[in-house]
Amino acid sequence: MSEQQSRRDELDRALSAVRSRIEAACAAAGRDSHELALIVVTKYFPASDVLLLHELGARHFGENRDQEAGEKFEQVRAELGDRADLTVHFIGQLQTNKAGHVASYADVVQSVDRTRLVAALARGAQSAGRTLDVLLQVDLDADTDTGAGGGNGGAGRGGVAPEAVDELADAVAAQEPLRLRGVMAVAPRDADPDEAFARLRDVGDRIRARHADATWVSAGMSGDLEAAVRHGATHLRVGTAILGSRPSPL
Ligand SMILES: *Cc1c(COP(=O)(O)O)cnc(C)c1O
Protein backbone atom coordinates (compact mmCIF):
# COMPACT_ATOMS: atom_id res chain seq x y z
CA MET A 1 0.00 0.00 0.00
CA SER A 2 1.34 3.45 -0.85
CA GLU A 3 2.15 5.90 1.92
CA GLN A 4 -0.59 8.15 0.58
CA GLN A 5 -3.13 5.32 0.74
CA SER A 6 -2.23 4.35 4.29
CA ARG A 7 -2.43 7.98 5.44
CA ARG A 8 -5.84 8.21 3.76
CA ASP A 9 -7.03 5.10 5.64
CA GLU A 10 -5.69 6.46 8.91
CA LEU A 11 -7.47 9.81 8.44
CA ASP A 12 -10.63 8.04 7.30
CA ARG A 13 -10.77 5.94 10.47
CA ALA A 14 -10.01 8.87 12.76
CA LEU A 15 -12.52 11.16 11.06
CA SER A 16 -15.22 8.48 11.28
CA ALA A 17 -14.47 7.96 14.97
CA VAL A 18 -14.82 11.70 15.66
CA ARG A 19 -18.05 11.87 13.67
CA SER A 20 -19.38 8.98 15.76
CA ARG A 21 -18.46 10.82 18.96
CA ILE A 22 -20.34 13.88 17.70
CA GLU A 23 -23.39 11.76 16.77
CA ALA A 24 -23.40 10.12 20.20
CA ALA A 25 -22.99 13.45 22.00
CA CYS A 26 -25.83 14.96 19.95
CA ALA A 27 -28.10 11.98 20.66
CA ALA A 28 -27.39 12.31 24.39
CA ALA A 29 -28.08 16.06 24.30
CA GLY A 30 -31.19 15.73 22.13
CA ARG A 31 -29.57 17.75 19.34
CA ASP A 32 -29.45 17.26 15.58
CA SER A 33 -25.85 16.76 14.42
CA HIS A 34 -26.62 18.77 11.29
CA GLU A 35 -26.61 21.86 13.52
CA LEU A 36 -22.88 21.34 14.06
CA ALA A 37 -19.91 22.12 11.85
CA LEU A 38 -16.78 20.05 12.36
CA ILE A 39 -13.66 22.15 11.77
CA VAL A 40 -10.62 19.97 11.22
CA VAL A 41 -7.61 21.76 12.71
CA THR A 42 -4.78 21.07 10.27
CA LYS A 43 -2.09 23.32 11.80
CA TYR A 44 1.41 21.76 11.55
CA PHE A 45 0.13 19.25 8.97
CA PRO A 46 0.74 19.48 5.22
CA ALA A 47 -1.52 20.46 2.33
CA SER A 48 -1.55 16.78 1.29
CA ASP A 49 -3.49 15.94 4.49
CA VAL A 50 -5.98 18.74 3.78
CA LEU A 51 -6.56 17.29 0.31
CA LEU A 52 -7.12 13.78 1.69
CA LEU A 53 -9.52 15.14 4.31
CA HIS A 54 -11.37 17.05 1.60
CA GLU A 55 -11.71 13.79 -0.34
CA LEU A 56 -13.14 12.25 2.83
CA GLY A 57 -15.78 14.97 3.03
CA ALA A 58 -14.25 17.55 5.38
CA ARG A 59 -15.09 21.12 4.35
CA HIS A 60 -14.04 23.27 7.31
CA PHE A 61 -10.39 23.70 8.22
CA GLY A 62 -8.76 25.52 11.12
CA GLU A 63 -5.29 27.07 11.25
CA ASN A 64 -3.47 29.17 13.82
CA ARG A 65 -0.29 30.40 12.15
CA ASP A 66 -0.58 33.03 9.44
CA GLN A 67 2.31 32.21 7.16
CA GLU A 68 1.77 28.45 7.27
CA ALA A 69 -1.95 28.80 6.66
CA GLY A 70 -1.60 31.25 3.77
CA GLU A 71 0.84 29.04 1.89
CA LYS A 72 -1.03 25.80 2.61
CA PHE A 73 -4.42 26.99 1.43
CA GLU A 74 -3.03 28.72 -1.63
CA GLN A 75 -1.69 25.29 -2.57
CA VAL A 76 -4.93 23.50 -1.65
CA ARG A 77 -7.11 25.94 -3.60
CA ALA A 78 -4.84 25.76 -6.64
CA GLU A 79 -5.02 21.96 -6.53
CA LEU A 80 -8.81 21.79 -6.12
CA GLY A 81 -9.68 24.59 -8.56
CA ASP A 82 -13.46 24.75 -8.98
CA ARG A 83 -13.90 22.04 -6.37
CA ALA A 84 -12.42 24.24 -3.62
CA ASP A 85 -15.70 24.42 -1.71
CA LEU A 86 -14.00 24.83 1.63
CA THR A 87 -14.03 27.26 4.52
CA VAL A 88 -10.81 28.36 6.19
CA HIS A 89 -11.10 29.36 9.85
CA PHE A 90 -8.28 31.33 11.43
CA ILE A 91 -8.26 30.32 15.11
CA GLY A 92 -4.88 31.53 16.38
CA GLN A 93 -3.55 34.52 18.21
CA LEU A 94 -3.34 37.26 15.62
CA GLN A 95 -0.90 40.15 15.47
CA THR A 96 -2.36 43.37 14.14
CA ASN A 97 0.26 43.60 11.38
CA LYS A 98 -0.74 40.14 10.08
CA ALA A 99 -4.46 40.91 9.96
CA GLY A 100 -4.40 42.18 6.39
CA HIS A 101 -2.79 38.99 5.13
CA VAL A 102 -5.17 36.74 7.08
CA ALA A 103 -8.10 38.64 5.56
CA SER A 104 -6.84 37.67 2.09
CA TYR A 105 -7.35 33.88 2.52
CA ALA A 106 -9.40 33.18 5.66
CA ASP A 107 -13.18 33.03 5.44
CA VAL A 108 -13.74 33.17 9.18
CA VAL A 109 -11.54 34.77 11.85
CA GLN A 110 -12.46 33.23 15.21
CA SER A 111 -9.83 34.88 17.39
CA VAL A 112 -10.78 38.55 17.42
CA ASP A 113 -10.05 39.82 20.92
CA ARG A 114 -9.30 43.54 20.70
CA THR A 115 -10.52 46.67 18.96
CA ARG A 116 -7.29 47.44 17.10
CA LEU A 117 -7.52 44.08 15.38
CA VAL A 118 -11.06 44.89 14.22
CA ALA A 119 -9.97 47.96 12.28
CA ALA A 120 -6.99 46.13 10.75
CA LEU A 121 -9.13 43.17 9.64
CA ALA A 122 -11.72 45.48 8.15
CA ARG A 123 -9.05 47.32 6.13
CA GLY A 124 -7.61 44.00 4.94
CA ALA A 125 -10.99 42.61 3.93
CA GLN A 126 -11.86 45.87 2.19
CA SER A 127 -8.72 45.90 0.08
CA ALA A 128 -9.10 42.20 -0.77
CA GLY A 129 -12.72 42.86 -1.77
CA ARG A 130 -13.91 40.21 0.67
CA THR A 131 -16.37 39.84 3.51
CA LEU A 132 -15.14 38.11 6.66
CA ASP A 133 -17.15 36.23 9.26
CA VAL A 134 -15.89 37.14 12.71
CA LEU A 135 -16.11 35.44 16.10
CA LEU A 136 -15.04 37.09 19.33
CA GLN A 137 -12.61 34.97 21.32
CA VAL A 138 -13.71 35.05 24.95
CA ASP A 139 -11.21 34.51 27.76
CA LEU A 140 -12.82 31.98 30.12
CA ASP A 141 -9.76 31.79 32.34
CA ALA A 142 -10.27 33.81 35.51
CA ASP A 143 -6.51 33.95 35.99
CA THR A 144 -5.43 35.23 32.56
CA ASP A 145 -1.75 35.43 33.47
CA THR A 146 -1.35 31.68 33.22
CA GLY A 147 -2.06 31.79 29.46
CA ALA A 148 -4.65 29.07 29.07
CA GLY A 149 -3.79 26.27 26.74
CA GLY A 150 -0.04 26.83 26.61
CA GLY A 151 1.79 23.78 25.29
CA ASN A 152 -1.16 22.97 23.08
CA GLY A 153 0.18 24.43 19.86
CA GLY A 154 -0.78 27.83 21.23
CA ALA A 155 -4.45 26.97 21.62
CA GLY A 156 -6.38 29.38 23.73
CA ARG A 157 -3.95 32.22 24.23
CA GLY A 158 -5.71 35.54 24.21
CA GLY A 159 -9.36 36.36 24.42
CA VAL A 160 -11.39 39.32 25.55
CA ALA A 161 -12.63 39.45 29.14
CA PRO A 162 -16.36 38.60 29.33
CA GLU A 163 -17.11 42.14 30.65
CA ALA A 164 -15.56 43.74 27.56
CA VAL A 165 -17.28 41.59 24.95
CA ASP A 166 -20.21 43.93 24.27
CA GLU A 167 -18.01 46.84 23.32
CA LEU A 168 -15.93 44.64 21.01
CA ALA A 169 -19.10 43.23 19.42
CA ASP A 170 -20.29 46.75 18.60
CA ALA A 171 -16.90 47.58 17.07
CA VAL A 172 -17.10 44.55 14.74
CA ALA A 173 -20.73 45.23 13.82
CA ALA A 174 -19.82 48.79 12.82
CA GLN A 175 -17.38 47.59 10.13
CA GLU A 176 -18.95 47.05 6.71
CA PRO A 177 -16.73 44.16 5.48
CA LEU A 178 -17.01 42.22 8.75
CA ARG A 179 -19.97 40.08 9.83
CA LEU A 180 -20.27 39.41 13.54
CA ARG A 181 -21.24 35.72 13.81
CA GLY A 182 -20.72 34.83 17.48
CA VAL A 183 -18.21 33.72 20.06
CA MET A 184 -15.32 31.29 20.42
CA ALA A 185 -13.38 29.99 23.40
CA VAL A 186 -10.94 27.38 24.60
CA ALA A 187 -11.79 25.82 27.96
CA PRO A 188 -9.11 26.72 30.51
CA ARG A 189 -6.75 23.91 31.37
CA ASP A 190 -7.43 22.15 34.65
CA ALA A 191 -10.97 23.52 34.74
CA ASP A 192 -14.31 21.83 34.25
CA PRO A 193 -15.20 22.27 30.55
CA ASP A 194 -18.94 22.02 31.30
CA GLU A 195 -18.74 25.02 33.60
CA ALA A 196 -16.57 26.96 31.10
CA PHE A 197 -18.80 26.25 28.09
CA ALA A 198 -21.91 27.14 30.09
CA ARG A 199 -20.35 30.58 30.69
CA LEU A 200 -19.47 30.89 27.01
CA ARG A 201 -23.05 30.15 26.08
CA ASP A 202 -24.27 32.91 28.40
CA VAL A 203 -21.90 35.41 26.79
CA GLY A 204 -23.09 34.27 23.35
CA ASP A 205 -26.73 34.73 24.35
CA ARG A 206 -26.00 38.24 25.58
CA ILE A 207 -24.33 39.22 22.29
CA ARG A 208 -27.15 37.70 20.26
CA ALA A 209 -29.72 39.80 22.10
CA ARG A 210 -28.22 42.84 20.34
CA HIS A 211 -26.77 41.27 17.18
CA ALA A 212 -29.23 38.78 15.72
CA ASP A 213 -26.75 37.16 13.29
CA ALA A 214 -24.30 36.26 16.05
CA THR A 215 -25.60 32.70 16.36
CA TRP A 216 -22.33 30.74 16.26
CA VAL A 217 -20.66 29.23 19.32
CA SER A 218 -17.25 27.73 18.58
CA ALA A 219 -16.20 25.50 21.46
CA GLY A 220 -14.85 22.03 21.99
CA MET A 221 -11.63 20.37 20.87
CA SER A 222 -10.42 16.74 20.80
CA GLY A 223 -10.67 16.30 24.56
CA ASP A 224 -13.88 18.14 25.39
CA LEU A 225 -16.15 18.11 22.36
CA GLU A 226 -18.92 16.25 24.22
CA ALA A 227 -19.13 19.03 26.83
CA ALA A 228 -19.27 21.63 24.04
CA VAL A 229 -22.16 19.77 22.36
CA ARG A 230 -24.04 19.72 25.69
CA HIS A 231 -23.68 23.50 25.95
CA GLY A 232 -24.91 24.52 22.54
CA ALA A 233 -21.74 24.63 20.43
CA THR A 234 -22.36 25.12 16.71
CA HIS A 235 -18.72 24.67 15.69
CA LEU A 236 -16.18 22.14 17.01
CA ARG A 237 -12.45 22.51 16.37
CA VAL A 238 -10.77 19.12 16.34
CA GLY A 239 -7.10 18.51 15.55
CA THR A 240 -5.28 15.74 17.41
CA ALA A 241 -8.14 13.24 17.40
CA ILE A 242 -8.15 13.33 13.59
CA LEU A 243 -4.58 14.07 12.49
CA GLY A 244 -2.58 12.65 15.38
CA SER A 245 -0.26 14.51 17.71
CA ARG A 246 1.50 17.64 16.57
CA PRO A 247 5.16 18.38 17.14
CA SER A 248 5.25 20.32 20.43
CA PRO A 249 6.07 24.02 20.09
CA LEU A 250 9.34 25.21 21.56
C1 LIG B 1 -4.99 23.55 18.06
C2 LIG B 1 -6.32 24.12 18.39
C3 LIG B 1 -7.45 23.29 18.45
C4 LIG B 1 -7.41 21.79 18.25
O1 LIG B 1 -7.00 21.18 19.44
P1 LIG B 1 -6.94 19.56 19.58
O2 LIG B 1 -6.82 19.36 21.02
O3 LIG B 1 -5.74 19.13 18.80
O4 LIG B 1 -8.18 19.01 19.02
C5 LIG B 1 -8.66 23.90 18.73
N1 LIG B 1 -8.77 25.23 18.95
C6 LIG B 1 -7.70 26.05 18.89
C7 LIG B 1 -7.89 27.50 19.14
C8 LIG B 1 -6.43 25.53 18.60
O5 LIG B 1 -5.39 26.34 18.56
Describe the structure in brief.
With 250 residues, the chain is an alpha/beta fold. It contains 9 helices and 8 strands.
Structural class: alpha/beta
Q: How much is the average pLDDT?
A: 94
**Residue windows where pLDDT falls under 50 for at least 5 positions:** 145-151
Determine the number of helices (DSSP H or I, runs of at least 4 residues): 9
Assembly state (oligomeric): single chain
Write out the distinct hetero groups bound to the structure. pyridoxal-5'-phosphate
Largest sheet, described in full?
8 strands, parallel
Summarize the amount of helix as a percent range: 40-55%
Strand order of the largest sheet: 7-6-5-4-3-2-1-8
The total beta strand count reads 8
Distance, first to last CA: 34 Å
Shape: globular
Can you describe what's shown?
By secondary structure, the chain is α/β, with parallel strands linked by helices. It is built from 9 helices and 8 strands. The chain has an 8-stranded parallel beta sheet with strand order 7-6-5-4-3-2-1-8. The longest helix is centred in the N-terminal third of the chain and has 27 residues, at 3-29. The two termini are 34 Å apart. Residues 145-151 have low confidence and may be disordered. It binds pyridoxal-5'-phosphate. Residues 41, 43, 64, 91-92, 153-156, 186, 221-223, 237-241 line the site of pyridoxal-5'-phosphate (PLP).
